[in-house]
């Protein structure tokens, strides 16, 4: 079904797909190696691939939010 979507929509307009997995790990998503290869083949045909090896924005924001929400702990010397 997803392969049909690639074929039908891909030739008429812009399709943006994001993934946190490299193509080499897509076999975890699809049922077998042949389906994975077919999906990747149809997806990358006439495509521009941008690979960004950057830290996750959402993970960084979650860390900042968690740090801001945590109560400040007094230093050990001040507790004695």
Structure notes:
This protein has one domain. The model has no long low-confidence stretch (mean pLDDT 79). The chain has 4 helices and no strands. The chain has 80 residues and is mainly α.
Short description:
The chain is mainly alpha-helical. The protein has one domain.
Give me some keywords for this one.
80 residues; mainly alpha
How are the secondary structure elements laid out?
Elements: H1 2-10, H2 33-44, H3 57-69, H4 76-79
Helix pairs in contact: 1-2
Output the number of helix runs: 4
C-alpha end-to-end distance: 66 Å
Radius of gyration, in Å, reads 22 Å
Give the proportion of residues in helices: 40-55%
Spans with pLDDT under 50 lasting ≥5 residues?
none
Largest sheet: none
Derived structural class: mainly alpha
Secondary-structure element string? HHHH
Number of strands: 0
- Number of separate domains: 1
In round numbers, the mean pLDDT is 79
Task: Describe the global form.
Answer: elongated
In quaternary terms, these chains amount to single chain
β-strand percent reads under 5%
């Amino acid at each position: 079904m997803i392969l049909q979507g690639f074929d039908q929509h891909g030739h008429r307009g812009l399709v943006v797909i994001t993934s946190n997995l490299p193509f080499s790990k897509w076999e975890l998503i699809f049922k077998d190696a042949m389906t994975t290869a077919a999906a990747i083949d149809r997806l990358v045909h006439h495509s521009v691939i941008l690979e960004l090896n950057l830290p996750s924005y959402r993970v960084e924001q979650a860390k900042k939010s968690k740090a801001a929400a945590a109560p400040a702990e007094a230093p050990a010397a001040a507790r004695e």
